[in-house]
Amino acid sequence: MTTKPAAELPRILRANNQEPTRIFHCWRRQPFTKSGSLFISLVLIVTSLVVPAMAQRKVELSVDVSKAGAKIDHNIFGQFAEHLGHGIYEGLWVGRDSKIPNTRGIRNDVVAALKAIKVPNVRWPGGCFADEYHWRKGIGPQRVVTLNSNWGGVVEPNSFGTHEFMDFLDQIGAEAYVSVNVGSGTPQESAEWLEYMTTPQASTLGNERATNGHPEPYKVALLGIGNESWDCGGNMTAEYYLAQLKIYSRFVRNFNPAQHDKQEMLKIAVGPGGDGPRWTDWTETIMKGWQNHQWSWDMNGLSLHNYTVVRWPPAFKSTGFGETEYAQILKSTLDIDALINKHSAIMDKYDPQKKIALVVDEWGGWYAPLPGSNPGFLVQQNSMRDAVLAALNLNIFARHAERVRGANIAQMINVLQAMIITDKEKMVLTPTYYIFKMYLPFQDATFVPVTFNAGTYTHDNVTLPGVDAIAAKDKAGKLWLEITNVDPNQSVEVEVSLDGVTAKSASGETLTAPKVDSINTFAAPNVVVPKPITARVQSGKLILNLEPKSVSVVSVEQ
Ligand code: AHR
């Protein structure tokens, strides 16, 4: 397992007693007259006598239906599958001879679950693993058995290689985001891998792919040029990495004719992993390099890695925690907004037209390994807190839709903030999975601005916005609304007005759970599952009652 000495780590988050970042909601303050304030004070005193302590909070939310923002790229719902623990082996690959129902070695239950959330792309084979991956060991009838030196030093059978990955993508209907080995490989090795995957020609590599069972060229939608090259990917300086980037960008070519004009392969450069000077310098160097780039190389995206961890090494429990840890983790996760703002501002300097996407290709909660698990396998549970965390992050990406055009949650199965947890033949869908399912309408939808009085939720010395929300119009023009009630104790009555338009109805799904650390298990898989929610209409406004710690997505009829 990669050790991360504290001094090296970009992601150490700020003290918990900071003020919450309020970036998207507006506070509506009314001017008071003296008599008015006396009246309000009296009302408050009377109200406090008759209303129980946990009164329902009221939120006014207004949707500016006439205004359209950027497209929320479906790629922000991407997944990440690394050769790490049981992320690949057992999680999705069981082999053709397994008793677990499978298609050419790939679990049928996992495929069905992933198909249902329309995974846009899967980043593979790592992570840190990618910079030690040698693709030739994972093709053909005779696989080379190696060691996974990053993640527990376990045996890597290489039985899941290029063909199995592409077959898996085919089965779930996703695109390939392949990360090539910059750290310990060569430009030639990566160039040959791309030729092997993408050429329709009868070159030796093209023929070899056909002999191995796939005459048609594969598509590679996204190409990651290295991974965390500032750390596990080779401890490079930004200048050194920029030189590598130019070489890989020049020589690692996609030969698939279907990707020449349309669906061009997007090249993603290694980007920052934090907000300090080391990271802003990195972004400056790569973006400045790109601004002055010659015809012979290019890039389309800059990656950003951000885990919600509070401090390294990860020590927060993934279940069996209380409200304090709920509030601290969610406060920490909201820091990603400032991080995106910081790096976007640098990108704007060199790329005001926003040609280069910011791709948050590793994000999610990273907690202490589950007791008894191999610490190199990054096994953790996934709770209601993770559902709220996922919603808050996706909303931040959506608000930055102009620049953030890709994101990959870490990781898809059995590792970190997973969609799916398996144990031999058993499989369970996590609360995070259901968030991705509920957010389906937002894939490629057009962002619509909303304003709301978020209020605050405070626990101990941690204060957060009480509510979060986004709105978007899907391709058919239907309006969708997402509202998260962050407060784990108070329900919220949301009054939605549609800027001059009369709302007729709204219905959808809401996800909540008995406790902040509620989880789904093999024995009890339906503890955290979405249930229907409907708004009532009152004077042309929609009234939604949201339970504490809940995430709700509704479609609105106007
Ligand atoms: O997701 C686990 C690891 O976190 C990845 O391999 C690496 O890129 C990051 O440090």
What does this structure look like?
With 558 residues, this protein is α/β, with parallel strands linked by helices. It is built from eleven helices and 27 strands. It has helices at residues 34-50, 108-115, 162-172, 187-198, 204-211, 238-251, 277-291, 323-333, 335-350, 384-399, 431-438; strands spanning 57-63, 78-80, 102-103, 106-107, 121-124, 146-148, 154-156, 175-180, 222-225, 266-269, 301-308, 357-365, 404-410, 420-423, 426-429, 446-448, 450-452, 456-459, 462-465, 467-473, 479-485, 492-497, 505-511, 531-534, 536-538, 541-546, 550-557. The strands form seven sheets. It has an eight-stranded parallel beta barrel, surrounded by five helices. A six-stranded antiparallel sheet has the order 16-20-21-27-23-24, with helices on one face. The model is unreliable at 1-53 (pLDDT under 50). The structure holds alpha-L-arabinofuranose.
Radius of gyration: 24 Å
> How many distinct helices?
11
Which sequence of strands runs across the widest sheet? 2-5-8-9-10-11-12-13
- Average the pLDDT over all residues and give the rounded result: 91
Shape: globular
User: Major sheet: size, sense and barrel closure?
Assistant: 8 strands, parallel, barrel
Distance between the termini: 53 Å
Give the cofactors and ligands.
Answer: alpha-L-arabinofuranose
User: Which stretches are poorly predicted, pLDDT < 50 over at least 5 residues?
Assistant: 1-53
Share in helix: 10-25%
Strand content bin: 15-25%
Number of strands: 27
Task: Give me some keywords for this one.
six-stranded antiparallel sheet, eight-stranded parallel barrel, disordered N terminus, binds alpha-L-arabinofuranose, 24% strand, 558 residues
